[in-house]
Recover the amino acids of this structure.
């Protein structure tokens, strides 16, 4: 019995990543902000209360939904090991070579017996443009008469307009979190692509890295 298989792309909701903005297949848009964390154990009682109240004010000021995503991933120590191996080869002092090798062996054994996890915090800011479906009638015929260049210009103008609305929302989130003492940075196109690649290809972090 033949099985109809669908390409993996059909299960991925992403249409494109443009200027750091995620455009989904349904036309909605997302901006992603990476934020730092706060260690409450190092804060005084008054500081904790102030942070909580400030964060509460931030949430109450939002008139749109946001999604807070916490990614927990095992630390990939391989790039650091590769860097140490390069330093080991550059050493000319015998004592330094021995110490470097011992340090590399220590790091390898320690990470093999201990799961070192890193957490990343993301705030996803959505914007859902109003989508009007036009079916039949004179209006449909008018749009059909547009040239491809005109249609492309209209699409570009629509993207820029929606982008402006999304950027305003992202700015509100960034300012609100900054007032809470949280450092934030907006992800660009390359960072967003890398983030989604790692999410959809978690096994790649287990592949060996070649060391020259």
């Amino acid at each position: 019995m033949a099985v109809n298989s669908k390409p993996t792309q059909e299960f991925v909701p992403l249409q494109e990543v443009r200027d750091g903005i995620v455009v989904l297949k349904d036309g909605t848009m997302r901006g992603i902000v990476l934020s730092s964390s706060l260690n409450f154990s190092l804060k005084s009682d008054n500081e904790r209360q102030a942070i909580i109240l400030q964060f509460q004010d931030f949430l109450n000021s939002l008139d749109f939904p946001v999604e807070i995503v916490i990614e927990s991933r095992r630390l990939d120590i391989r790039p650091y090991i590769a860097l140490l191996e390069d330093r080991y080869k550059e050493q000319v002092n015998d004592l330094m070579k021995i110490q470097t090798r011992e340090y590399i062996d220590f790091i390898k054994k320690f990470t093999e017996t201990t799961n070192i996890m890193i957490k990343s915090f993301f705030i996803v800011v959505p914007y859902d443009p109003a989508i009007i479906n036009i079916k039949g009638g004179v209006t449909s015929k008018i749009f059909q008469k547009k040239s491809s260049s005109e249609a492309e210009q209209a699409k570009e103008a629509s993207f820029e307009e929606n982008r402006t609305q999304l950027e305003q929302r992202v700015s509100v989130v960034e300012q609100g979190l900054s007032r809470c003492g949280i450092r934030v940075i907006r992800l660009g196109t390359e960072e967003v692509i890398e983030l989604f690649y790692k999410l959809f290809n978690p096994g790649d972090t287990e592949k060996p890295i070649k060391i020259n």
Summary: The beta strands are 14-18, 21-24, 29-35, 67-74, 117-127, 184-186. The CA atoms of residues 127 and 171 lie 13 Å apart. The helical segments are 45-61, 78-90, 94-113, 137-144, 148-179, 189-200. The chain has six helices and six strands.
